[in-house]
Write a structure and sequence with these properties.
The protein has 15 helices and 17 strands. The chain is of the alpha/beta class and about 475 residues long. It has 2 domains: about 240 residues, Rossmann fold; about 170 residues, Rossmann fold, CATH 3.40.50. The strands form 4 sheets. It has a 6-stranded mixed beta sheet, sandwiched between helices. A 6-stranded parallel beta sheet has the order 7-8-6-5-9-10. A 3-stranded antiparallel beta sheet has the order 13-12-14.
């Protein structure tokens, strides 16, 4: 999930937008929750790590949606689209997609059989899937999302060298090996996927040398080498040494300048975007920069690394709320929350007013009144992006708020509303509810999505080859 700082920055830019009407959600897992209304009036839990939880805003845009500086509002939709495209691509030109300015990067689809047959293609995918204690994949969304690009390459006779990270290992860590992914990849691709025990070195060189046209080789976890995250030039050069060209299909890591996402592009040409990367940018840049209005952004999610009431963020929260008021933004915060006496599936629970959580209890979901208010507000929207659940949906007892919003978005999708699920726990939530297929787009990159909305450039995208601009 995105950091508190990133969520704050994104909220700050949204709050800077004039003529903005807002709705909100409450969640124990919401970074903006902690920022937006981490009020002292909420009673704290006795736990030093889990105290009362605030809510996150769901913003319904009636007018312009601004990604730029709070002090530099854009004058028109054309300026806005150009600015967002520039943040992604580093240029003010773009290629048409869904009728709007989109990324101006070369795509794997631009490469034909004559460009690919017999060529060794280094494919950076995001196969960072969750595994249970028995090393079984519990959610293969990211693997399935990578399949179209890989199939296109092998279908055109390329030799695919597939690379990814998994988890956050400190050196070689067996539980973070990519070995459990091989059977599922083999099944989905219809070819026998081979695997090496490292991502660089003699073993990799020999495996690539014997790889047939249309073959797939999975390298071991890139992050087993600390040089990956440091974007070490020598490590990047070693990764690139076994390939002829590069495809980045890992949108989830596009906001990181790592050896496999940015460094290798200095040694491999062409360097192009995969189909998933292209689709992510088409939706997130296209649908959000010039959305069908009204537009809504639901921002939630949390990392429980400290108290969920951050006293040092109260001033920031007050500033953002004041700015929203000045710009005509109405923040509809939760009126009621489901609270628990402990962070557990079997906790005792009850519903209380959002401003009246007693000591020793914590908010783990939004209440029925809040669900009704938010659902009614969403009824007027035409575009919705959701990043972060309403509560601890992993516990059935506290999943109603998240499930209700997921059902509402699925319903709206059926009515032609563009619904974008922005990665992380939001994806897990709609998958659990069995509603993923009903959404317009399921994003694989939570942090990358928010950084893009925040207005930051994405190193993994900037490093790719520019496409020939096409008039929209």
């Amino acid at each position: 999930m995105a950091s508190t700082t990133a969520a704050a920055a994104a909220l700050g830019r949204i709050a800077s937008t004039p003529n903005l009407q807002a709705v909100s959600s409450s969640s124990t897992s919401s970074p903006v929750a902690r920022l937006a209304i981490g009020s002292r009036s909420w009673s704290a839990s006795s736990s030093p790590r889990l105290r009362s939880v605030a809510s996150s805003p769901l913003l319904e845009v009636k007018s312009r949606f601004v990604f730029g500086s709070a002090s530099n509002l854009l004058a028109s939709e054309h300026d806005l689209a150009s600015a967002v495209a520039a943040q992604v691509t580093g240029a003010n030109h773009g290629r048409g997609c869904r009728g709007v300015v989109s990324m101006a990067k070369k795509s794997v689809g631009d490469l034909k059989e004559s460009d690919l047959k017999g060529k060794r293609v280094f494919v950076r995918a995001d196969l960072n899937v969750p595994l249970d204690e028995n090393q079984n994949i519990t959610d293969d969304t990211r693997i399935r999302a990578a399949v179209p690009t890989i199939k296109y390459l092998i279908g055109n006779g390329a030799k695919v060298i597939l690379a990814s990270h998994l988890g956050r290992p400190k050196g070689v860590t067996p539980k973070y090996s990519l070995k459990p992914l091989v059977p599922r990849l083999t099944e989905l691709l219809g070819v026998n996927v081979l695997k090496t025990d490292d991502c660089i070195g003699e073993e990799v060189e020999k495996a690539v040398a014997s790889l047939p046209d249309g073959g797939v080789l999975l390298l071991e976890n890139l992050r087993f080498h600390k040089e990956e995250e440091k974007n070490d030039p020598e490590f990047a050069k070693k990764l690139a040494s076994v390939a002829d060209l590069y495809v980045n299909d890992a949108f989830g890591t596009a906001h990181r300048a790592h050896a496999s996402t940015e460094g290798v592009t200095k040694y491999l040409k062409p360097a192009v975007a995969g189909f998933l990367m292209q689709k992510e940018l088409d939706y997130l840049v296209g649908a959000v920069s010039v959305p069908k209005r009204p537009f809504a952004a639901i921002v939630g999610g949390s990392k429980v690394s400290s108290s969920l009431v951050e006293d040092d963020k109260i001033e920031l929260a007050s500033t953002l709320m004041k700015k929203a008021k000045e710009k005509g933004v109405s923040l509809l915060l939760p009126t009621d929350v489901v609270i628990a006496d402990k962070f557990a599936a079997d906790a005792n629970s009850k519903v209380v007013p959002a401003s009246d959580i007693p000591d020793g209890w914590m908010g783990l979901d939004i209440g029925a009144d809040s669900i009704k208010t938010f659902s009614e507000a969403l009824d007027t929207t035409k575009t919705v992006i959701w990043n972060g659940p309403m509560g601890v949906f992993e516990f059935d007892k506290f999943s109603l708020g998240t499930t209700s919003i997921a059902k509402k978005l699925a319903e709206l999708s059926g009515k032609g509303v563009t619904t974008i699920i922005g990665g992380g726990d939001s994806v897990a939530a709609v998958e659990k509810a069995g509603l993923a297929e009903k959404m317009s787009h399921i994003s694989t990159g939570g942090g990358a999505s928010l950084e893009l909305l925040e207005g930051k450039t994405l190193p993994g995208v900037l490093a790719l080859d520019d496409a020939v601009p096409v008039t929209v």
